[in-house]
Structure formats: structure tokens, C-alpha cells
Amino acid sequence: MISIHVQILLIILFWNSDCQIIPRIEECGLSCSQGIHCKSKPSSGLFNSFCHDAPASLSSMVLKSMKISTVMKCVQGSPCSLHLNIKGTLSLDENIRGLEICSLSLDTQQSQCTNVRFARKKSKMLNGKKVQVQFNCIEVNVAQHIYVTMKTVPNYCEVKLSQEYYVEDCRNSDVGKYIPACSAGKFDYNVDRARKIISVNVSNFLRDQDYYVRLCHKWFTCEDVGAFAVIKGKESLKSVSLKYSQLLPCLCIEGWLAVPDARRIQLCPFENDTKALWDNIVYNPVTQTLAWEPACPVLVTVNLCRLMKSNDHCEDIQNSSKNSPEKVKYSRVDTHPRLCMKFTTKQGSWVECPFAHGEFPAWKMRTAAVAEQIQVFFTSQTKAQFSVLVCNRTQLASCESVGMHHSVSVGDSVSITMSQEMCGSTICIQGWRTDVDYSVPLQICDIHCGFRGQTYGDGNPAKAMTHRMKSAHSLH
Fold first, then answer.
1. Which residues contact 177 (CB under 8 A, 6 or more apart)?
2. What are the φ/ψ torsions at residue 375 (nearest 5 degrees)?
3. Which residues in the chain come in under a pLDDT of 50?
4. Residue 202: exposed, middle, or buried by beta-carbon count in 10 A (0-12, 13-18, 19+)?
5. What sign does the dihedral 87-92-93-96 (CA atoms) show?
6. Own/partner pairs for 172-175, CB < 8 Å, 24+ apart?
7. 137 Cα distance to chain centroid
8. What's the CA gap between 322 and 51, in Å, rounded?
9. What CA–CA distance (Å, rounded) separates 441 from 123?
């Protein structure tokens, strides 16, 4: 029950901070209590940066209780702006001529300082009295992280107040509604796929203010894709055309007002267009390495698989599954047309077969039935080592060994004795490369024993197999 109460309290606190109304001012300025006349002027902060030892009579508590809040300056005909409202209490003393108030942006390291001076005659009469100083002319940006200091003039060591402060961001309803940097605009877009152009129309942003639009690839940040376009605030047409090279899931439209620290909005309309991600497959014939690198961040499982001739299903190759947000590599890969890469996401699965177009040499397996023996031999344009066994195909992609393994090289052959029990429609001769780490097993099935001179190719009896496959399949 305690945790529930804490959660409710946190929700109330966050709701209050987002809905808090920022006090309004029409003019910024300086005010001092006790009827003391005070005036301010900008200061570099340099001349008061070094401190002096305080007189023995001066208490270190002469400065206390600095409070900081945000106010919104709104003048008719002009956009509203945010200012720091700084209040501090000072005990008047004949050794103090005034105050210095400084703000340092911890985001940009830019500082602003103001000197506050008191009328000497009036302040001497009120020596020892407390005076409250309020200053609200330091302009700040949305969500800025500020470090505020208040020192005496002269600057006495150990007599100083300091405080960090966070300016409200655009989640505050008041700030989000009235501050231009939070008016990020609204997008409408149209895609011309033939010309590879995205037309963007922007609305709901500050009039007479320039607006930037760009395309970007969203990784940890949104990285530029070409130059950004400018919509001039004074122009009636609020649209731009942006060229793209490829529609990717991480391709986004980003827009923001041409003001410092402006809030940016992003629209990523192609998040489901994942098919283009699977094209970036590269094979290095020297190292026999097959690699894929995503053009966008994507949660994907990658497998090597064997494309089944009968139904275009791609069966995973054992121990080839990889989960990686970056580059995926497979070393010592067989270049057989049936060896493919399978990509699986929440949206489905896609198969790409990089060797399907005959650009790389493929090996073939042949058998010849002579009496009760099957002679197996391989043809290949490159040197290769193979393993052969007799297996019982219990399922479409599963073949259980029923005999011993035989090793064979290109140009050589191996003879396998077939007993009557080993002959049948589910019995297959299976061969695969052993000089690589990833190879597709090929099968010649429906072995008929006792027929002399029968020749089989890897796929159909009495007929050499021709490799035909699609380069990409969607397995939803």
C-alpha cells in the first residue's frame, strides 16, 4: 500500500509541474525593499571575480535565502520570453556597496552578470537592516540548466550564495503554448517514389519566423541526409521538396524554428519499410566471408539457411543464428546457390540468396547406381572437400543417418553399398562441403537399388538438378 501511495504522490507532483502556470510580467526590472533606491547595470563579472578577506565586523550571514523562479515576459505584438526571477536577502552594512548577480548556462557556458548598487545615504541610515533584492531581467531558454551566484560588492570571501536551476521545458503547458521555441510545427508530406522526392508542408508554427526542414537517419541522434531546407517566414508557401536515395525505416523528417535551442519535431513515416534493409549483403571471395550491415538500427535475428527446392522454405543452418544491432559476419561460407540469409523481425521474415544468380562457382553432386552399390561423385570449379552419408528423411528438412560418413574430394568418387533395407522412397544420399564452416547439405532421394546404369542428380532421380531460386522470399 505504501508503494501505491508513493506512486500517486509522484504522479501528482509531475502533473503539477507540467501544469504550473508561469507568472507574467510586461517589463523586467530591479526592485529593493525598505524604500531603498537601487539601480542595476550590466557587468562582465571580471572586476568582481577575485575575493577579499571580509572585515572582522562583517558576518558571513550578511547574504542569505536566495530564491529562483521563472517568469514569462509577454508584450503585445511580440513573442513571449522566459526570464529568471531572482530574490535574495542582504543585511545592509557600511562595508557593502552593492551586489553582483550572475547566471551561467551549464549547457552553453555563456554567462550574464548585473551589478546592483544602493543609494549610499539611505543605506547608511538602515545599517544592519535586511533588504530584499529582486531582479528578473536575465533571459533564459526553454529547459536550460543554470548556475546562479550572488556576491557582495566588494567581493568578500566566504560571503556568497549559489544555486543550480532548471528552466521549465515544453512539457509545461504554459511554456509549450506561449514560447516560440516550443511551437515546433506540424507536418504533412507526400512521397514521389518515381522521382525519389518527399514534399513537406509545414503548419502551426510562429509567423514571420524562418523554419528549417531536413531528412535524417535516426540512430542515437538523427544524422544528416543531405542539406536542410529553409522555409522563409515571410513567404506564403510553407512547403519544401527533399530528395532521398532510399526509403529506410530510420528515414525521418525533422523540423524546427530558426531560433536558438528550438524544439525539434520528427516524423518517421517509413518504419515498416524494412525490406530495403536486407539488400546490403557483401561476399568477399578472398576471405570467403559473407557480411551484412544494417543501414538503420533494427532488432533482427540473422540466420544462414538452406533454400528447399520443393516449397521455397528456407531451413536454418545449425549454429548460424546471430543477434546484432551492427555488422554480422560469417567466415568460410559455401557459395552454393541454395545458401541464403534469413532476417527475422517482429514484422516477419525475409530471405536473401546472394549466390542465386550464378555469379559464384557452385558444386554439384551426382550418383550412379550399379547393382547394389551407389557411386557418389562431385563436380566443382574450385578445390573442395565433401562428406557423404546415407540418411532416412523423416521430415522435409530432417535426414537421420543410417550409415557411416564417407569423405571425398572433387574429381574422386566413393562407392556406398546399399542393402535391401536401405532402399526406399525416404532413403537419401546426402552430401555437403567440409572445407568451409557453413555449407548447405544436398540430397538425392528415392534411391532404387538393383537398377544398373541409373544416374541421379542432386534433387531428382535420373535427372540432373538445375538450380533455380528466387533472390528474396517473404516468409510471413
1. none
2. -95, 125
3. 1-2, 4-17, 451-453, 459-476
4. buried
5. positive
6. 172/17, 172/18, 172/19, 172/20, 172/22, 173/18, 173/19, 174/20, 174/21, 174/22, 174/72, 175/22, 175/72, 175/82, 175/142
7. 39
8. 62
9. 97
The cell numbers describing 189, all together, are 508530406
Number of helices (H), then strands (E), in the chain: 3, 36
One-letter amino acid of 88: G
Extract the C-alpha cell encoding 141.
531558454
| DSSP for 68-79, written as a single string | EEEEEE--TTS-
Taking the C-alpha atoms of residue 49 and residue 157, their distance in angstroms, rounded to an integer, is 10
Q: Rounded CA gap, 431 and 296, in Å?
A: 38
User: Would you say 99 and 116 are in contact if contact means Cβ atoms under 8 Å apart?
Assistant: yes
Which residues in 61-144 belong to E strands, given as ranges?
63-73, 81-91, 98-105, 111-118, 130-140
User: In this structure, are residues 119 and 37 in contact, taking their beta carbons and an 8 Å threshold?
Assistant: yes
Strand segments, DSSP code E, in 193-317 are: 197-203, 211-218, 222-224, 229-231, 239-243, 251-257, 264-267, 281-284, 289-292, 301-307, 314-316
**Can you point out the beta strands (E) in 155-279?**
160-166, 186-192, 197-203, 211-218, 222-224, 229-231, 239-243, 251-257, 264-267
Residue 117 CA to its chain's centroid (Å): 52
Dihedral pair phi/psi, residue 18, rounded to 5°: -75, -25
pLDDT, tens digit, 9 for 90 and up, residues 60-96:
889 988 999 999 999 987 889 999 999 999 988 888 8
Which residue in this structure is represented by grid cell 513567404? Answer: 235
pLDDT, one tens digit per residue, over 37-54 is 899 999 887 767 788 888
Neighbours of 397 (CB within 10 A): 16
> Computed over its alpha carbons, how large is the radius of gyration of the chain?
38
C-alpha distances in angstroms, 165 versus 149, 398, 401?
11, 67, 73
Copy the grid coordinates of residue 285. Answer: 571471395
Q: What is the pLDDT of residues 265-320, one digit of tens each?
A: 899 999 888 888 898 899 999 999 999 998 888 889 999 999 987 667 899 999 99
pLDDT at residue number 380: 87
For residue 451 the three cell numbers come to 537398377
**β-strands 24-25, 63-73: how paired?**
parallel
Residue 122's pLDDT is what? 62
